Amino acid sequence: MDQKALDDAYDQDVYAPNRPLIVTRRIAASERARAILGAPQRVAYGPSEHERLDIFRAPLANGERAAVNVFVHGGAWRRNKGPDYHLQAEPLVRAGAHAVILDFINVEQAGGDLFPMYEQVRRAIAWTWRNAENFGGDRERFFISAHSSGSHLTGCVLTRGWREENLPDNFCKGALLLSGMYDLEPVRRSKRSSYVSFTDAMVEKLSAERHLDGLHTSLILCYGTQETPEFQRQTREFFAAVQAAGKPAELIVGEAYNHFELLETLANPYGLAGRLLLRQMGLA
Description:
eight-stranded mixed β-sheet, Rossmann fold, 8 strands, 39% helix, alpha/beta, 284 residues, globular
């Protein structure tokens, strides 16, 4: 690729010009989900104002415990917030699972450094696993779903972050990662370097594909055929690397979906990603 092609390949607006419409739909759908489910329990998992998560509980009988799914949102590391994704909760709650939606700092708030984002997502996931029983969750049925830069951060937690939090290697029973990035070197060469201060240490430590020895979670990886060429390649090559390392993974290609359209299917129990999520969690 020349520089413009590489820049475009890490700019979703070039390949998905309908992003603003989808974002508007997502926020409106999240408002409807809160109206239907009620306000979530908002919990601090750390000391800063950014370290919050929202818990939507499934109704349970006394003494019963339910599966837990943690959702990690994307946004090119620089935008969006957890409440904009509350629509993800309704199909999970209806299926009998607890939904946890994370909030965390963005890269611009962190001065161009991805490490605070990674550390907060890592701590939030660890907090949720450790405290699952306090909100009726079953730690033996603990799952993660993520999209875009959220998939990048989740991949880092699943390959190395669990060790830094002293979690058991099998703490997460399965993860559904949509449209992620797993090697930061090509991203570093793109125009995203205008707002991310990439360093050699960042590229090495936060490239999940380089730490597959630490992966102990079964993965479902998914991308759409209308994604940018780099987002398609990143998922294909990560899947191949995971397979070559002898780790369990499944690759699903969404025909005719762009980056944001694919995410919309996650909140639909009959959508492509929604079906995958419920199947992975044993709820379908």
